[in-house]
Design goal:
Layout: E1 2-12, H1 20-38, E2 41-49, H2 54-63, H3 68-79, E3 82-90, E4 93-94, H4 96-104, E5 114-121, H5 129-140, E6 144-145, E7 150-153, H6 167-184, H7 197-200, H8 206-213
Parallel strand pairs: 1-2, 1-3, 3-5, 5-6, 5-7
Antiparallel strand pairs: 3-4
Length: 216
């Protein structure tokens, strides 16, 4: 394989262990890695289970500062060449834990980043949540979601899975689109974990943060 390895950050917002959310995330990551391998592109994959950082995410929302473990996750996500994000669907939308993690990222941190969106729920009635709830979130953040979002209902994992549009075909299509998007881009530059721009935003300083906390 040639060139610098491309890095994909996989964010899974499942709450149980094991979870179908993580199962879907792993399938999307494996299919994307296969697609990139066929393009002779080396890949590194980092998988993050948000439930392992739930308390840190809450503390960050309350204090404005990320504990070290969460800071490492944030740095890996914002510096990755692409993202795979998978959330369970609750009340017809993404989970609160998933949205809370997105809220601790700088609003400009995902600009131009390719994103493959996955979601799962107990019933296929929630399948439209990707397009009316999750995709607009990443579009608002100026990320670049690939056209195919992959939704998996409980029935997709069993013997009665949809034979018209099987989950495997949807996974492969989304992975192919993400691999195409990665291949078109230059490799992401390594992010300096000590660069304040990673958590303050470009052009901002600790003075901006302190000013904001004081109400100015």
């Amino acid at each position: 394989m040639t060139g610098s390895p491309r890095r994909i950050a996989v964010v899974s917002a499942g709450l149980s262990n094991p979870s179908s959310t993580r199962m879907l995330a792993d399938r999307l990551a494996a299919a994307t890695a296969k697609q990139l391998s066929e393009r002779d592109i080396e890949i590194e994959v980092d998988v993050f289970e948000l439930r392992d950082y739930a308390h840190d995410i809450t503390n960050n929302l309350l204090t404005g500062f990320a504990p070290p473990a969460l800071e490492s996750v944030i740095n890996a996500v914002v510096s990755a060449d692409a993202l795979i994000v998978v959330t369970p669907i609750f009340s017809t939308s993404y989970s609160g834990l998933f949205k809370s993690f997105i809220d601790v990222l700088d609003p400009d941190a995902l600009t131009g980043k390719p994103v493959l969106i996955g979601a799962n729920a107990g019933t296929a009635r929630h399948s439209l949540a990707i397009d009316y709830a999750i995709r607009p979130l990443f579009t608002y953040l100026h990320a670049e979601p690939v056209p195919t979002g992959v939704f998996a209902a409980s029935s997709d994992w069993g013997a009665s899975a949809d034979n018209v549009a099987p989950l495997a075909e949807r996974v492969d299509r989304g992975a192919r689109e993400l691999a195409d998007a990665i291949a078109r881009r230059e490799p992401a530059k390594d992010s300096d974990p000590f660069d304040p721009a990673n958590y303050l935003g470009d052009g901002r300083s600790f003075g901006h943060l302190l000013g904001g906390l004081s109400g100015e």
